[in-house]
Amino acid sequence: MRLSQYFLVTTKETPADAEVVSHQLMLRAGLIRKLGAGLYTWLPLGLRVLRKVETIVREEMDRAGALEVLVPPQVPAELWQESGRFDQYGPELLRFKDRHQRDFVLGPTHEETITDMARRDVRSYRQLPLNLYQIQTKFRDEIRPRFGVMRAREFLMKDAYSFHVDAADLAREYRNMREAYRRIFTRVGVRFRIVKADSGPIGGDRSEEFHVLANSGEDLLAVSDASDYAANIEAAESLRPGPRPAAAAQSEPVATPTQKTCEEVAALLGVPLQTTVKLIVVRARGGGLVALALRGDHALNVLKAEKHPRVAAPLELAGDAEIEAAFGAPPGFLGPIGDKVPVVADHAAAALADFVCGANRAGYHQRGVNWGRDAREPEGADLRCVAGGDPSPDGQGTLSLVRGIEVGHIFQLGRKYSEAMHASVLDESGKELTPEMGCYGIGVSRVVAAAIEQCNDAAGIVWPEAIAPFRVILCPIGRDKSAAVKQAADTLYAELSAAGVEVLYDDRGLRPGPMFADADLIGIPHRIVVGDKGLGSGQFEYKRRGAAEARMIPATTADVIAALSA
RNA sequence: CGGGGCGUAGCUCAGCUUGGUAGAGCGCUUGCUUCGGGAGCAAGAGGUCGCAGGUUCGAAUCCUGUCGCCCCGACCA
Asked: Counting C-beta atoms within 10 Å of the first and last residue's C-beta, which end of chain A has fewer, N or C?
């Protein structure tokens, strides 16, 4: 491709409304342009990258035995009402009415559509297993679109849905997809990690996420330093601590007139934060309140709390007035003493002896408190987010917290959708069988942003070779002045093109500075400079994007091709 | 949705407090010079100051409303 014939729109200045580096670079390098909040046009250069990711995904899905389909982005609301998700999914579901006032949704995923197809056309166990996928624009009425295409209202997603006669076959396909995903992200060329996940509103039993590791990631992951254990912090279990030490201290009140948080109290008393206990008062399932006790240095894991049988889901914090009525003290001075409301204690809080907590009296805390003596022996549960330094749940190593960008998610759904939508097949004995389902997603457009997030330097993008928009950029110096340069560059361009190398030829006649700056910014992996200097000794200059130094190579097409693969 | 901020040239922004004929840098066009890491000189194009009302002799500037965008919190590929 000749750049003079192309639509390359780069900018030197960083657009004001771009926060993360991938968004900035995608705008500066002319990959995308914003149409509205969370809506982006893919320009020619960006679309080439998107297509490359898409192609890798398609090839590996095909290789794994899945079959490509294409379903309508519009879905009649009845299908979503049938699965129950029309009401459950919430405001994030993009809905509209047509001229006849019929309800539709713009699909954020397509379990319903595919299950509907399956119940019509999949009649026999002989047709199973079946794994159908598509690569298509998905829609979400995001609360807050941000970070460019990373969290957009529209995005390109690969979604796959599989059907099986039993759970064992579902598990087999799940592993198959897991391996396919591993190959996909390896081929794309990003550093990633597979983590245990919560299945969220999609539902189902087992699920794992694929994360590209990057500091700008929106998700916190807990990873072991000694094994391959890794989990989204939402889903990471915490290990139960050892047995509780014996009580040694007397329980006594201490004045804490203005100290409401555990941090403030611990500082005032000069005790470690880990010896304090805080109460979080929430609505109980079936009415009333329940208090969740956590160690002062630990954070509540909302998803874990919502799964607890005593806690109402979605989690709702009690109001100040209710708390005062139940405890006789305002928030900030609450403790598990005095049987005010039922207490569920996180295992780590339950394992403390001689701890500090609120005295249920404004302006006072209580120290030397012990379960079973000063406070009723609590019900224990895993309620907290794991913290860096915790032992890994698999017993090997220590957890540390890192950030990741979720680019893939695989689920074993079970029969949630097939049951709700009455999809069934006849088994060998002629009896009805409700298939087990799996679903598998990849955020294709998000992968592009995630790759940039991981692969960039001060000058711009440094594309992994597999998804670079072009493989080589050809930069002639003084092409308009030197017949030798023009001749050599034109020939090299023609020969590389003929050899099937994706080459971008900068024939715009720019000065070297801007030309190199653009080449760096758009991140083409290999750069060949053709100039009078080198040609004088029969050489081209070769530089790998991201390499410190350029080197000279013989000025022949064969040597250039050899350098590309070196 | 709640909290905070911003809408002035293609981009980054000044001007607004104290109303008086719309600015800079970068980018773009043309010419000459220059040509190995974002050149110099000269000439030029480009803005209903987000939109709608209001106050005023006069509004980018003051007032009201409205729309859009960005950032912080609850969601997800």
From this structure: C
